[in-house]
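INPUT
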Amino acid sequence: MSSLAVALTGNPNTGKSTIFNELTGARQKIGNWPGVTVDKKFGYLEHQGRHISVVDLPGTYSVNARSPEEKIVIDYLLNEKPDLVVDVLDSSNLERNLYLTLQLLEQGVPLLLDLNMQDEAKRHGIRVDTEKLGAALGMPVVETTARSRSSIKTLLDVFTSTMMEKYRPSEKVRAHIARVEELRASGLAADALEEKVIEERYAFIDSVVSECVSVEGTGSDLTEKIDAVLANGWAALPLFLVMLYAVFQITFEWIGQPMADALDDFIGGPLTETVTETLESWEVADWMQSLIVDGVIGGVGGVLTFVPLIFVLFFCLSFLDGTGYMARVAFITDPIMRRVGLTGKGVMPLMMGFGCAVPAIMGARALDSEKDRMTSILVTPFLTCGAKLPIMALFAAMFFPDNAANVVFAMYILGVLMAIVAAKLLGGTVFQEQGSTFLLELPPYRLPDAKTVLLETWDKCKGYLIKAGTIIFTMSVLIWFLSNFNFGGMTEEMNESFLAALGTGMSKLFFFHGFATWEAGAAVITGILAKESVVSTMGILYGVGEISAEAEDAVETAATLMQSGMASAFTTMSAVAFMVFSQLYTPCVTALGTIKKETGSWKWMGFSAAYMFAIAWLVSLVVYQGGRLMGF
Amino acid sequence: MIEPFFVAVIIFLRYITISILTFYIAKSYHVKVKIIIKFSREENKMTLREGKSGQRFIVRAVADSPLKNRLMTMGLVPGTSVTVLRSAPLGDPMALRVRSYHLALRRDDAASIEVEAIA
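OUTPUT
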């Protein structure tokens, strides 16, 4: 069986990914291009007895090798020489799309031109003469409507029947290449030369387009009408808030949270019981049972319960992204975001930060300047993620029973304020000399392809699941060990464990903060491993046993803890200081691991851990001492 | 759990207040950060920065700037017609129609594009 290597290339927003997903479906893998944080997507399929491998190259507007994506595209095409290179074009936007096509032809890459989005072009009254286009460029042309099964079938038939060797660039293209060569030989300065070459390319494209494309009437431009409402001046912001509200409701109220609760019940109930019974029937040693049930199931399970939330949040965001609305969100929020040292493109990653910092940090990939990306990565963890919320809810319910909601809310605001201050500071110091730009295509509104949205969502959740299985697994075992052992071996008394010793050490740092108890110190340490464990650590250490880490149960949990030693361990003011500290300090190890991966540097990971700890320490100190001076 | 919504509202109210304040402070001190106008006003040349919604222009030249190459690659070469579609709140960035697609661009970046108005 002969095999065929196919590469998909094209501009962003041409439906290229949809074609890739329709071709390969679930038989795809997502890896990383070596050395960069750009996804490498590839998949396999069989058609007419041939084994076809497909690579989905990153969507780019050109191949000047300026960005990692552009470099990947051109390097892959020139070095790997796939059997067939498919250039996916948006038929309703041929002019800009043909720029990449022409650049590739100049590099001697033979292309199968795929005129995609035919239905959309026809609605706009745009007719592309396929034969003329093929003749003008000397390359084979195929028409598709992504998402239609018959289109995909046609495309596959073309894959197996097209002999690219038969095609040579047309006379016209060769003449263009000769003119470009001439320019390059003319000894112009690099900048001026590049300008001339770009003009030459667009001159060529304009002549091809005037030959092959006819526009009959403008048709009704739906995108234009929607944008007049959703992306126009001040009115666009409240509409964005409504959209955001809907996303949060779906995630935390309607769909995500109920799923998370069900999973939590299952892990805490039937799963734990079954495993315990099984282990007992096998007569497994007590310490091993404790490790598996308390350590692994407790730790990994706690993280798994966040998966439904992340899945639903990501599904909503991927869906909105697929419609084209996200580009508008970036557009309408940029004036605000720019003034706080960020960029409009960073709004969505930041919004994810209210769910979990991990996908939010990964989402910063989409930002194009290094400054914006780094700033976004470094300030995201200040926000109140889903795991910090229970801490705030518990302390607020215990020490401010009458004003709990307002206090929790104030902590959210504190997180946002610190993120803004940090963005400003980073912009004025670390990234001072770097500029920020904003150049963004606003694609036409489209109904997203279900398969593409689901695959994208799954891809992002998968990363989180893998982390739950690696980092969290290891850390769970570690916490379990620290809280159950001391130098004398296994101990029943937690206040004699390694964790107590570490907590005592850590608590020395908070002598002036009012919460210098080993219990608080231990909670701070476990909180670095996972913020979820701050509340459960408190519960265990103050001897009330299992307590709920759910924000909804905060009032009951607070009532239980009030009976314990915890009420006397904190004063109102030191409780506030502890909340402030928890809100702002070092991100959890999963987030730190993500920062390491995304920045590719241990230095930035260390910086993030250290500067957030320092800021949290300072701010909570000021809050505590300031509060005492004012007589609270 | 309704807090995230309130948070979002407060964040935006805050952002908006900050924006308005910053805008007026900057205006009253005639501060303009990072303007890359390369075409002097004496020559009476217009740049896309001053473009208002609904106006149509022809690109005359693109001045040297770190963005020059990307702008030209995206189709903003001399002779191309550009329509200003709308602006984000506070008038910046702006949305353009260029070569049958829509492009959003900050006005500071648009300052490097010299244009000529057409009726």
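end of record. Chain A is about 65% helix and 10% strand.
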